């Protein structure tokens, strides 16, 4: 699930079921139209339906294709299709096709699942790469592929991170001894695979967008592999704010967090504007520094039960429980999917529930990264607020006896949050401030050439009527924001080519 989190502590009581109600296989007690009625029980999928789904479940690959089938206009390019020109004549935004590939990497059992989208007959000068969140998969971006591929000159890639989604699932094991070395090794496990994929695809530079844990790892990638990004887009990124309990081994694990909202928030109430989250109150505050210090406008923090901390530190993932649940696994998963997708049409809810279960039940691998990078409650062991200002400032070419070092001179960084996000937007504004301070420092201390090439910027965007999964909660506004960013990036790239 795209939620850098673990299990909730206190299940709600299931609602009573009247004779006129039916139980939807993907969600809560429902009326004849499949709409939730009377609230959502904690595990809304019935026992019988859960066993039936476990017994007859489709493959993870087919479940992914079922979700992608909801994308309008785009057609799959395969050997059995009619010519591309005939396939996409009805596309009002130009002929576009998508392809699925399993890109093999070096080493044993290492491959990344990839879906690419391209505009037929047009040259793609720019590339957007999309990374999902913890335990999720590229299929969750199904409402973004079509709108984002409307922008001319771009090719889109969505990747399942190594050990997640439908990518291969090698054994995940950390060999480092010290806490910082463990963090570095855990980050490298993912970002080294991304860099190898980039080289295989022969992509020189690209725009990188990451959601949640994918956003955290996108920052790690930018710091380790400088000179590869044109822009960094962080959608509700995990791990920005600092928590003293999470970063100090001599202190106990964090005792409270906003993470519980991932399991208790009703997405339908969020997208209908009936939920009042802390982020929107922070955005409306006239003095954001005072609001952040007072901590009265941020998302609600709830105590983390001791048993959750124990499971987290023991590296028992929520997906381990899904696998151990056997025939009741689909019922367990329905506790998350029923809330997370209840704002979507019935067929899409069902497809996303099946897709989620198909991913969660697979062999454990990349999911075991969680306690190395994040403390209980999704607090970072190595907070991004300590290092995000150095993104775009790394040395590309070391100095020699005759030539000075070549250093990055910044690039745009966009931080996005939902107004009812359980990720704290205050962390985004704090990151924006640190990045801007670093830009000022670069303009003061840089060489004349570095000052001329300075391209750094930072901004925070808030998507209305959206929570942590802003790309799915309000795809119209989210896609409009990203389209604008892509257009600006392309315009700046063309300008650089003209002046170089």
TrEMBL record:
Q: What does the UniProt keyword field contain? A: Hydrolase
Query: Is Hydrolase tagged as a keyword?
Result: yes
Q: Which domain of life is it from?
A: Eukaryota
| One Gene Ontology MF term | phospholipase A2 activity
Q: Tell me, which GO biological process terms does this entry list?
A: cardiolipin acyl-chain remodeling; lipid homeostasis; phosphatidic acid biosynthetic process
Metal-binding among keywords: no
* One GO location term (cellular component): mitochondrial inner membrane
Name of protein:
Alpha/Beta hydrolase protein
């Amino acid at each position: 699930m795209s939620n850098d989190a673990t299990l909730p502590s206190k299940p709600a009581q299931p609602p009573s079921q009247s004779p006129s109600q039916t139980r939807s296989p993907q969600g809560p007690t429902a009326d004849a139209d499949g709409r939730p009625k009377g609230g959502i029980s904690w595990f809304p999928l019935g026992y019988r339906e859960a066993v039936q789904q476990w017994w007859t479940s489709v493959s993870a690959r087919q479940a992914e294709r079922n979700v992608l089938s909801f994308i309008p206009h785009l057609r799959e390019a395969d050997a059995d299709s009619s010519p591309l020109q005939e396939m996409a004549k009805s596309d009002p935004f130009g002929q576009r096709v998508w392809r699925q590939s399993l890109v093999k990497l070096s080493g044993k059992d290492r491959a990344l699942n990839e879906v690419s989208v391209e505009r037929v007959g047009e040259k793609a000068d720019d590339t957007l790469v999309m990374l999902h969140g913890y335990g999720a998969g590229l299929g969750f971006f199904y409402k973004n592929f079509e709108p984002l591929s409307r922008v001319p000159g771009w090719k889109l890639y969505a990747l399942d991170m190594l050990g997640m989604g439908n990518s291969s699932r090698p054994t995940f094991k950390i060999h480092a001894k010290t806490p910082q070395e463990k963090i570095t090794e855990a980050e490298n496990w993912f970002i080294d695979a991304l860099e190898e994929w980039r080289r295989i695809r022969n992509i020189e530079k690209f725009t990188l967008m990451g959601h949640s844990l994918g956003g955290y790892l996108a920052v790690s990638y930018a710091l380790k592999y400088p000179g590869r990004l044109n822009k960094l887009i962080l959608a509700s990124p995990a791990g920005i704010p600092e928590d003293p309990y999470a970063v100090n081994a001599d202190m106990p694990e964090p005792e409270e967090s906003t993470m519980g909202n991932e399991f208790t928030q009703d997405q339908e109430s969020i997208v209908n504007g009936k939920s009042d989250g802390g982020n929107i109150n922070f955005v409306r505050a006239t003095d954001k520094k005072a609001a952040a210090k007072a901590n009265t406008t941020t998302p609600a923090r709830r105590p983390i039960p001791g048993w959750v901390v124990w499971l987290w530190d023991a590296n028992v993932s929520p997906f381990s429980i899904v696998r151990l649940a056997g025939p009741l696994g689909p019922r367990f998963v329905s506790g998350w999917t029923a809330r997370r997708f209840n704002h979507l049409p019935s067929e899409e809810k069902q497809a996303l529930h099946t897709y989620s279960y198909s991913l969660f039940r697979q062999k454990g691998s990349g999911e075991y990264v969680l306690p190395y990078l994040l403390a209980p409650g999704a607090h970072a062991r190595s907070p991004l607020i300590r290092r995000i200002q150095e993104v775009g400032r790394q040395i590309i070419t070391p100095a020699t006896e005759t030539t000075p070092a070549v250093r990055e001179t910044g690039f745009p960084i966009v931080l996005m949050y939902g107004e009812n996000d359980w990720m704290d937007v205050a962390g985004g504004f704090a990151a924006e401030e640190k990045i801007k301070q670093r830009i000022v420092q670069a303009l003061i201390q840089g060489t004349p050439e570095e000052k001329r090439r300075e391209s750094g910027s930072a901004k925070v965007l808030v998507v209305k009527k959206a929570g942590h999964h802003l790309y799915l909660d309000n795809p119209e506004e989210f896609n409009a924001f990203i389209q604008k960013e892509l257009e600006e990036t392309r315009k700046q790239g063309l300008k650089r080519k003209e002046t170089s």
